[in-house]
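**Protein of interest**
===
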Amino acid sequence: MIEQISEYFTTETIYIWLNIGVVPFWLILIVFPKSNICRFIVSSIFPIIVFAMIYTYLVILFYKSGYNFLENFSLYKGLPYLNELMQNNSFLITFWIHFLAINLFCGSWIVRDCQKFQISKYLAFFPLLLTYFVGPLGIFLYWIVRIFFAKKISLFD
């Protein structure tokens, strides 16, 4: 059965569907952060489960094709090794899923935190947009905005 599924769900197809599929989640986070759909679908465990299922599917597929997962640890040896790993589509798609999942998780946290401190969705717009494209910069910008609403600088919240 996995062979039939793998004929359609190639690495390229999964990449395209991931990129298309994550956009509605981000639009809901940015445009409708206080809606029930945001709370129950986007800010819940649902997207993480979807990412985990896709990740698991790919790991099984790559394992069956003989992919050497131990080579992934060579990325810690330096940039040339990371560059070499990025040439491998199997590593690249799993890396991309990781990137999308973490950024969406951070975006969901920003929305929940904005609601906790009653920060306007308009002030959260640019941090969320930056988090979608360049994660750490968006989170840092949100932290700057948050300082003014929380009335404290917290490094551990």
User: Anything to note?
Assistant: The CA atoms of residues 7 and 122 lie 44 Å apart. Residues 121-150 form the longest helix (30 residues). The radius of gyration is 18 Å.
